[in-house]
Amino acid sequence: YDAVKNTPAANDNASGVAVLLGLCRELAGTGAPVRLVFFDREEAWFRTPFLRLGLLGSLYYVFRTKLDSIAAVYNLEFCGIGDSLGVWPIRNRERNLPVVKHVEKAATRMKLEVTLAHIPWPLLSSDHLSFRLRGLSNSVTLSLLPSPQIPVLEAMVSNLSVPRLLTGQRPVLPGVLSLVHTAQDTSAQLSEYSLQLMLSLLLELVRDYSSPL
After folding, report:
1. Cα Rg of the chain, angstroms
2. pTM for this structure?
3. Are 120 and 162 in contact (CB under 8 A)?
């Protein structure tokens, strides 16, 4: 699930699968109004310098499922390393979306640092994009990074532009993100603390998502 061929794919994205399995166990028998979905074929199966085609599992889902009753989508990527939460892709005009406000509220209770980042889809995308393409703007991806690497990520994002990315000028990803899609993305790199941190955040969201802000 969400693995590049011939890589261990521990943080991208066995970590997300592990957190969702933990959430399944925690919510069993509770009747919580939550859908837990494991999408496959997220990684690009067709790739050129100008075009990448992936997200097949989530695209199939959104075009075969009624989305009217879905209030928000929280997609998981890179959940196994770090203590600081990244919410992406969030443009300035999207910072007041309910999906963002709810996760900020939950993170504040947990004293969890939050960074909102707009990462253009040609550089990095995930299954949130399928839902946005169907008009569900309250769709984001949640990731974890070590706190010291956040300024490096912010500096990189501030210098990004879609034209540069489309012409093949891809920046070097900081820290743990540089392990993604490589042979170094192994389970030895993962932290049980990080996995539990993401699980705790999701449980906070489940508990109070229907409450008014």
Report:
1. 16
2. 0.90
3. yes
Residue whose pair of structure tokens reads 């980042």 in the numeric block: 117
Q: Could you tell me the maximum CA-CA distance found in the chain, to the nearest angstrom?
A: 50
Query: What tokens appear for 11 in the block?
Result: 């943080």
Cα 154 from Cα 144, distance rounded (Å): 14
Q: Which residues contact 52 (CB under 8 A, 6 or more apart)?
A: 44, 46, 122
The C-alpha atoms of residue 154 and residue 117 are separated, in whole angstroms, by 7
The dihedrals phi and psi of 50, each to the nearest 5 degrees, come to: -115, -10
Strand partners of residue 87: 116, 142
The tens place of each residue's pLDDT in the chain, 213 residues long, gives 788 888 999 999 999 999 999 999 999 998 898 999 999 989 876 665 555 678 999 999 999 999 999 999 999 999 999 999 999 999 999 999 999 999 999 999 999 999 998 887 766 789 999 999 999 999 999 999 999 888 877 777 666 666 665 556 666 677 888 888 899 999 999 999 999 999 999 999 999 875 544
Contact criterion met (CB below 8 Å) for 106 and 96 = no
Per the omega criterion (within 30 degrees of 0), is the bond before 92 cis? no
Distance CA 160, CA 127 (A): 21
Q: Count CB-CB contacts under 10 A for residue 182.
A: 13
